[in-house]
Each structure stands twice: as C-alpha cells, then as structure tokens.
Write a structure and sequence with these properties.
This protein has helices spanning 2-31, 134-137, 147-153, 180-185, 188-191, 198-217, 244-253, 283-286, 297-305, 310-317, 347-358, 371-383, 394-400, 411-420, 430-442, 453-461, and strands at residues 34-43, 53-56, 61-64, 70-76, 81-88, 95-102, 107-114, 126-129, 164-169, 174-179, 228-229, 241-243, 256-260, 263-264, 268-270, 294-296, 321-325. The protein has 462 residues and is of the alpha/beta class. It has a five-stranded mixed β-sheet with strand order 3-2-5-6-8, with no helix packed on it. Strands 4-1-7-12 form a four-stranded mixed β-sheet. A three-stranded mixed β-sheet has the order 10-9-11. A hairpin with a 2-residue loop joins strand 13 and strand 14.
C-alpha cells in the first residue's frame, strides 16, 4: 500500500513539474516576435548575383540568393541582436557587414555590392563597419561658422528638394553622388532607432531631409566638392543598411517640407535626453546651441511614446517653423474625427476630457477612457439632445468643441495644447498660436490662428 501511494505521488509530482516546465515555454512561444533580414547582392554595375552564399554565423543561418540576387531570413527573437552578414560569390571579393542590428518586428535591408576579385589583395574580404550611433557617442553635428548669419539673412522659397547630394565617404576618401531620397533613407536608421515609434521616425525623416537639403544650397565645405560628410560631423550615411520602418517614414513624409521664414533652414539635432524638456541634457547644455534651432532625438522618442505626432514634435523643438508641401506634392485631406469610447487612450482622449471639463464635468484628464469618462459623455450627450451611447463621434464633437484663440484660457485651451504637443498651461499665447498656424498650413486651411470646428477636426484627426 505504501509503495503504491509512493509511486502514485511521484507520478503526480512528475506531472505537476512537467506542467510547470512546459507552461512558460508555451507562453514564450506564443509571445515570440520576429525579425527579418533581406540581403540584396549585386555586382559593381548593380546587376543581381544569383547563387551567392549569404550567412549569419552567430545565428547559424545560411542560404543562397535567388535570380533577383535576394536572400531572406526570418529570426524568432524578442531582443535586438548585433550580427555580421557574410556574402561570397565565385569570382568576386568576399564581403562582410559588421555590427548590423536585427530589430524585432522590423526588416533589416542590406545592400551588398561585390567587386571582382582581380588581385591578390582581393582575396581578403571587404569589411563594412556600421558606425557607432550618435545616440551612443553623443557626438554633435559640426556647425558652420556662418550658419547663424545665414539663418537671419536667408530669403526666398525653396520648394523642390535636390535630385542628388554629394557625400564625402570619410573612411574611403572618395566623394559619392547619391540620389537624394536614397541618401535620406540610408541616413535615418543611422541617426534614429528603427525600433522607435513611427511618429518619432517621421520627425527624424523630416529633420534629416531638411538638414541635407539646406547643405546642398549653402556650402559647409566650400571648394571641397561635396555637401556633407558621412559621419556625425553632419549625418551618418551608410549605403549598405536601411530598414523597412525607416524607409516607410521617409516615404510617408517625402511630400512635406519644413521651412522657417518661407525657406529651408539648418535643422540640427543631437542625442539629448528622454524627457519633454527642450533644454535638459540636450545640445544647449552640452554644445551651446540655441534652443529652438535643434531637436533632441531621445526627446522625439519621449514625445512619440506619449502620443505626439511628427508634426507636433517638429514644432515643439524648432521655433517658428511651418510644415508645407514640396513643389508637386499634394496637400493632405482633412482627417476624420477619431471615434473614442470606453477603452480608448491617448492624447485624443485627454483632449476630450479637458473639453468635458470646460463644460463643467469633474474629470481627471489622464488620457484613459474609463467608466467615469463614459458616464460624463453620456450625461453631456443627454443634455445636448444626442443619443446617449457614451461614444464620442462627429455629432458629439460638434457640441463639445469651443472656439479658442490668442488670449483665451481654460480647459478648452488645454485640450488644443494637448493635441498640438505644446506646453499645456491653459493660456493661449504666441507659442500656441504659432502651432495652430502651422497645423492650418499643413492642411491648407485659413491661417488665422483661431481654433474653430475645422481646425479642431484637423487637430484631433492628425
């Protein structure tokens, strides 16, 4: 009897241990993320090389390219991983890309142009090092001594970006003439982090594009034959590396231009700090730059993480700027009112809560649409002859919004300040008015600085 009980308990114990061991593994499997790697192999003339060997030794991956010269891998990982990509093709010099990063939920795009192995020295692999990120080195851009003067006297409109830019490849000692959009796509992932939120990446795409655009018009290196260096002295450029997410951010914002006094300006940026301050730990402290002429990269992440749009991030950091369209671009259509209900969250909800408070409802504007907010919405709808469903849609917005302008104050002003990403103090002053003017210019609205129904819709819908 004792023996039977002993074996029975041992069996139950084994089963329990098995469940304990298996449960976390199953959960981990369910939550596993994926990172993608796509390598395009070409010869020096840009023609695809098929049957080239592509491998990532640290992950035990190897395959060959297809007829289009493309090899693709998918890796299960919840963390970013630093990898080395090795490429070999008969008759060509071996090629290595070091210190590239695989990022979960993104695709690392590697371009591997192979040269012919014609000499003994070509038996050694060509090594491409991904440079240290500005966010790890805190290296500032090198300002031109005349930039302050140029920012004051520069006049005229700059409506069309250049078709090419001349880049000095410092480590190679040569000048490359690069398609301008291709250049920006191969700068952004080396200045911003591909895993960051889309709105931060879009703000970075605009800043990178504007800085380079400015440099093609106003020489930083007169007589040298190039517009920028490929290092942190200007913007880190690597023609071999890009990401699906950063490419999309460049495409999404390509029809827009960032202008000051109706002209392209030097949109500098530096690492900065992860906070909502324009000065804490940023370029003004470390490098003596003027606040309002630069953006914090970490700060853009903080603002995006807290619901700010790329437009509001740019207008938060750069003073007196306007976001318009480039020549041949299209003005974006007015966005739809967002539908808010129990379970919604973010700045749209916080702004709606401020508007409810402006109508006398006692609420905490915390950006979380819970039972208290739903009850206030139902009560407001009933009082205004609307269907009391607790959902904020177009008809509820029409009753909820209030016209505000320079000189206004209170919770309705806090609502628009929340949506614009400016300081939320309830006082409609010059800074808030400028942000409103920028928003109106973006959607080709009447630029009067007054927040009426259409401007409210643009602010909520952006």
């Amino acid at each position: 009897m004792l023996r039977r009980l002993t074996w029975r308990w041992l069996g139950l114990l084994s089963l329990a241990l098995g469940l304990l061991i298996q449960a976390p593994v199953s959960a981990q499997t369910r939550n596993q993320q994926r990172a993608n790697l796509t390598v395009t192999v070409t010869n020096i003339d840009g023609k695809p090389l098929s049957n080239a060997s592509v491998s990532v030794a640290s992950l035990g991956l190897t395959t060959t390219t297809n007829e289009a010269g493309i090899a693709h891998f998918t890796v299960s990982t919840n963390d970013s991983q630093v990898i080395e990509v090795a490429v070999e093709s008969q008759g060509h010099r071996a090629w290595r890309l070091r210190n590239a990063q695989l990022i979960p939920n993104d695709t690392l795009l590697v371009d591997a142009p192979l040269s012919l192995a014609a000499k003994a020295v070509d038996q050694q692999p060509e090594i491409i090092e991904v440079q240290a990120h500005r966010l790890t080195t805190n290296a500032p851009q090198e300002a031109n001594l005349n930039d302050a003067e140029l920012n004051q006297i520069m006049a005229g409109t700059n409506t069309t970006p250049p078709s090419t830019i001349r880049v000095y490849r410092v480590s190679l000692g040569r000048i490359d003439t690069v398609n301008f959009k291709t250049y920006v796509k191969h700068v952004l992932p080396n200045e911003w982090v591909a895993g960051w939120r889309t709105e931060s990446l879009r703000s970075g795409a605009m800043a990178s594009k504007t800085y380079a655009w400015y440099r093609t018009m106003y020489p930083k290196y007169p007589g040298k034959g190039y517009d920028t260096k490929d290092t942190t002295a200007d913007q880190v450029y690597n023609p071999n590396v890009s990401y699906a997410s950063t490419n999309a951010a460049v495409d999404d914002t390509w029809n827009y231009r960032l202008i000051k006094n109706n002209a392209i300006f030097q949109s500098q940026y530096c690492a900065g700090s992860y906070n909502g301050s324009r000065t804490s730990g940023q370029c003004s402290q470390n490098h003596g730059w003027t606040v309002g002429l630069y953006m914090s990269q970490w700060g853009s992440k903080y603002l995006a993480d807290n619901g700010s749009s790329w437009r509001s991030i740019l207008t938060f950091y750069y003073d007196n700027v306007t976001i318009g369209t480039i020549s041949g671009g299209t003005t974006p259509s007015l966005p739809a009112w967002p539908s808010l209900r129990n379970g919604s969250s973010g700045n749209d909800v916080k702004a709606a809560q401020y508007l409810l408070r402006s109508h006398g409802y006692s609420l905490t504007a915390d950006g979380a649409f819970g039972a208290g907010t739903e009850q206030a919405v139902r009560s407001f709808q009933s009082a205004n002859g609307l269907t009391a469903d607790g959902i904020i849609g177009p008809q509820t917005y029409a009753k909820l919004i209030k016209t505000v302008q320079n000189g206004s104050s209170g919770d309705a002003v806090r609502a628009i300040q929340t949506l614009l990403g400016v300081t939320v103090d309830g006082a409609f002053g010059a800074g808030t008015e400028q942000a409103v003017l920028n928003l109106q210019a973006t959607y080709d609205l009447t630029r009067d600085g007054i927040v009426g129904p259409v401007t409210w819709q643009a602010a909520f819908g952006k």
